[in-house]
Amino acid sequence: MASEPSLSASNESIPQMEPPPPAVERFKYSARVFLRSILGRADGGKGLAGQRVLVGGWVKSGVEKQKPGVPSSLSPGAAAHPVVKDVTCSEVLINRLSILRSIARILTGGVCNALSIGKPADGPAKPVTTVGYLRISDGSCAANLQVVVDSSLHTLSQILPTGTSILVEGVIAIPKAPGKYAVELEAEKVLYVGGVDADKYPLSKGLLSRAFLRAYPHLRPRASMVASIARIRNSLSHSTHQFFQSNGFLNVQMPIITTTNLRNHKKMFEVSILSSKADDSLRLAAINDQEAKTLETIKAAIKEKSKRIEELKRSNSNKEALLTALQDLQKANELAHQLEHKHTSILTKTIKEDFSENFFGRQAYLSSSTQLHLESYACSLSCVYSFGPTFQVEDGQPSKSLAESWKVEVELAFARLEDAMNCAEDFLRYLCHSIIEHCPHDMQFMYKRIDNKCIDRIKSMGSSPFARISYTEAVEILNKRFEEKVEWGTILSREHESILADEIYGRPVIIYDHPKDSKPFYLRVRDDFKTVSAFDIIAPKAGKLVQGGQKEERLDKLIERGRKLGLVQEDYDWYLDLRRHGTVQHSGFSAGLEEIVMFVTGLDDIRDAIPFPRNRGSADT
Amino acid sequence: MASEPSLSASNESIPQMEPPPPAVERFKYSARVFLRSILGRADGGKGLAGQRVLVGGWVKSGVEKQKPGVPSSLSPGAAAHPVVKDVTCSEVLINRLSILRSIARILTGGVCNALSIGKPADGPAKPVTTVGYLRISDGSCAANLQVVVDSSLHTLSQILPTGTSILVEGVIAIPKAPGKYAVELEAEKVLYVGGVDADKYPLSKGLLSRAFLRAYPHLRPRASMVASIARIRNSLSHSTHQFFQSNGFLNVQMPIITTTNLRNHKKMFEVSILSSKADDSLRLAAINDQEAKTLETIKAAIKEKSKRIEELKRSNSNKEALLTALQDLQKANELAHQLEHKHTSILTKTIKEDFSENFFGRQAYLSSSTQLHLESYACSLSCVYSFGPTFQVEDGQPSKSLAESWKVEVELAFARLEDAMNCAEDFLRYLCHSIIEHCPHDMQFMYKRIDNKCIDRIKSMGSSPFARISYTEAVEILNKRFEEKVEWGTILSREHESILADEIYGRPVIIYDHPKDSKPFYLRVRDDFKTVSAFDIIAPKAGKLVQGGQKEERLDKLIERGRKLGLVQEDYDWYLDLRRHGTVQHSGFSAGLEEIVMFVTGLDDIRDAIPFPRNRGSADT
Fold it and tell me: Could you say which of B267, B274, B585 has the minimum Cβ distance to residue A273?
């Protein structure tokens, strides 16, 4: 591997300097340190002052300022913070890893954007007159690092634009003039620069609206807010795994492609390799273009001949001529019928045969829920969860629903409704505790920029138990408030839910025992035959975060409900097997990751809660 | 919630007994304990002898034996292990949670399968003559618990069959006769039984082949081996998250539905809601059945009329009659043309318009890799990984490839080839360490039943560094072994890989710097213009576990390679933006979860490494 030296520090030990400086936590897979390792410390990095580090990131903003009177060729950082040993960290790196050789090769290899090292690309070092102040981010934390670059090190105009990438070695220092930064980096070497095409870079301007950013899903994580959301989402995802793993649940990956379609008349996305086959057929049809043209010619001839016959008839000319003309026309007609028949049968074949052929042998769909398959694993492994994408053909407001969204789904065997409610409540409260613990700075950012109640909301959710009321009680409570009565059996609206969670209880509310017809057929029917053992968790501001319930474990009841809904038993007979053989009471729930992100952050558009939102007409990136 | 008492112990504290017995770790979301909490202890559960617990699970096997002379009505367990206090645990539960009330309700609610409590369903307790010995599993660990049930507690024939579910309260006891079990459970109450339809239950017989089990993906996790694989897979999944999270990577969820298709001529699954639209069109066509029938009638008439005209001609009858007949035929022809035209245009519309219309506005696919989208997040958040399903239209051996498989994909910004190789090697070694630590019993099971080298293999992978050779070196090494030369540039076969990893090195081998044309266009071209900075990790027995490389960060090179492959630039222009704006050197890799499961367990059929395998013609459950 001598031909491709690496920045990695993982395989060899770095020579120890004496006395040992306070440790900067290094990233294991390059010599670079994450900004989090500096700025994420309780002291904001002050304790690391004097240490030489390598950092990389993207410029958030950059300004050039006149340099106060300092002797040229020496940066103020190097002056203020004498090097601990004679040999600099960069020299160690160079000796050890031949960075320069490799960079020289990169240079000759033709990097398209600006790239230089050590000194400006355009000649020998000029006398120092200006200094660049760059705020850079590497995505590892919410904070940015100020990097001070002397113009003797690099042409400043190349590194100041927003969006430029930079890999720089320097010394951590306490800024001489007190300001908003606890520490800054005094650059000693600029090792790599990736420029921006400033005319085309859409994120050049400072604060951009979330709606504007949505048009650039591949670039928007460079916006501070979108990066914060990504870190919050990461933390919530990992806490989800932590919660279930630490409580003895097994993560099982359930299928996306399914032939079990129990959504009744609701549309699902279909999966096929059909249209490429249909393309073949259309191509086949195109080969017959020649024939199609012939058909057109014949049809034109038929028209012409018909006209001629009409003339002959009108002119009362001899019958011999008319007869010949008619016989001639008849031949043309026969030929036309033949060609038309051929044409039609190709088209019909394309539709009928190609539509019924399928890679999976029958119509296959993208699963809208792993629910049914998950029960199969719960009915042998006891307590399981899945966490993955699910798919819905949604034509509602794109800000409220997604065609592709991530769900955690949970199933507990030997468990009743209340067990699932307890588990779901604990899960949400765990997420609230952990997000405050793991993402304090990103949450502060959300608090300032999106929703100044978000931190209070999740703190209060984490600390007090949820309210629990039955659907029937919910209707009674609402009817005390409203002129217009809520009729028992109707599905509670978003507005009803908000009145309960935001106004009446001021905390999450679990509403259980819903009317049978408002919930899926596999939920357990209660003895009143009117309600099922379902529950929803409604949170202030966010609305419905969780849906769940106890499943119908009794075979006869389940078949009966399926029949009433018009489901075809053979479509889900495998699911009935779970009741035929060793059935148990079991309960579960599902929660949408995007809805949880929205609850935690206060975001009001679901497209901002997922990296690449998918919706009608929208999957371009 | 008084109407639906729960078995949950999470909300109320259980009255303390004095003196406190050794603690059984309780499951938080029901009063049941996981078998792992008993059998997973270092002492196999012996230290818990005398404790009363509630367990649930499925019967693996059951036998009925004559009971040795013991006074009736008292089970040997109760006799051997006097209750610590006057009040039994079950009485506490009954008082507190009204279990009996609830069970009574379940009984009246019509459970379809066998269900009874306390005593046999068919009358008062009979004098005790026999005892049932059940081995049960709840999926929480590889071991089974022996449950001893007196025939006075339940009709044994109902609970002995394999696959029966049972919820039972009893006392943990050291078996009187020494045998294979460290402890057993002496049942005191049978709280719930879910019978099996023995004639139809496919897993009634003892040891079943994996091929047989594959036909029942929804039931096969009840087989010990499949459950072990599921626990190993869970552990590998969670360790994957642990490894990347602890090293500062962010988990980002990348889209499944994509319109970016760079696989060139390789087929991808398409996503649509088309065929239901096409169904509409076909229905529309069906409405025109009436017209179609008319057309058939007319065509029959035309045939008849044509025949008549031929007869008229042959009989040389008067021209008047022939003329009338011909004119009559002509009218029929015109009508037929009209109807045919209408029919054809409906069919053409169905194909052309409906095929080009699409939910996402253009052709959308199931992503075969999150690679490109992941780079977008790496180029702002630095180090990211995705972990989710990917899709391939595969027509190879179903035992070797899947249409739907789980991949972890990783991307590091400011990182070179060697950084990614180091990270991938550490990742695999971490998985090997953690699986031995977290799943020792399941790994023992694999060792005994599947592959008696699997434990040695993962231990050696965890302890020694991988070999690293370039592709060119690999070809030279192989050519020393073979008569038949391997030509530089050919893709190494599975056999070549096996010779390197199994025979020559006897450990995993990283092969890097592959011929340009054998790898994707986005890998970084080396200065020789012949190779790219790619790498594969080949493991003994399993073959290729990881593929990765350094990505081309230079815009001009990337465009050039895409052009040579005939890619349409506008299809991936957003991806080029990542090079136009703040490009950095970045590297990454991807690893298939199923391949890792196969490596770890020694399984040789990939369909056994995933819960619900998807392949051509196979997505029925």
Answer: B267
